[in-house]
């Protein structure tokens, strides 16, 4: 049996969203009986999984993210040249041949277009990342977008890769994120120090600038006093209406006790937090720049808005008076399983 190799600098659980994504693919492929190798600098798996995978460690040297990035690529290429009879799934802008290139990171070309493209492209960092991105798309046999947005963006920025780009909808952990905890909404609020009368808005993310926290903070003073904002992931100074939780272990409890999840993102290829909220039965407000927005059905599980104060305020007020059903919200995405996702990847891997 051919070995399936998974490539990314860090892979596994508890070290990041894309890293978790690659880790889950490794676990599901193991469950399906495949021989799995991981090419990475850092891995994080339970002991029973570590026994089943072949780890090919890659050193990272240099100061700053770009030198480390480039050194990892150099080391990975040298390692792969010594291996044979494998299929390579890259979750990373690897500029050399891969069988599947998974677009789990933001598309740099589009991210720059959302900012100040001319000024950004002058920075060496972005020029290097753009070059790696283009080469990764050129070199991959097939490209996998996690949502429809990704394939649309490929057509706009890299039309040469459009015909070899396919959509495989990423999976969700429904054993952890589901509407059952909604029955414990008030006890959970008491545990976390909130009243049952509060209307709780949730924001989740570390990159607060790109994900639009500043926009929510501008809207909040214009909302009814009972509206409070909970911020998970980021650190900050809490006030009477704004509560920073930092890194949260039991995030499913936070989704369960909140009334609304809001992510006015500048760009997300597919925000995991949006899916976690929907899986938990919590309605969402996001933008068209979030790949997961294709699953948001107006009035049924949330709203998709323009990225400005008036649109966001209007949608939040509308959500406050909409009787959402947590079970129906969950059912709208319950087909997004890890098994379905990995089966889709295998279909394009041409084993």
From TrEMBL:
GO molecular function: glycosyltransferase activity
GO terms of biological process kind: lipopolysaccharide biosynthetic process
Classification via InterPro entries: Glyco_trans_1
Span of domain Glycosyl transferase family: 186-323
Claim: Nucleotide-binding is one of the keywords in the record: no
Keyword Transferase: yes
Pfam families listed in its UniProt record: Glycos_transf_1
Residues annotated as signal peptide: none
UniProtKB keywords: Transferase
Entry protein name: Glycosyl transferase family 1 domain-containing protein
UniProt lineage: Bacteria, Pseudomonadati, Thermodesulfobacteriota, Thermodesulfobacteria, Thermodesulfobacteriales
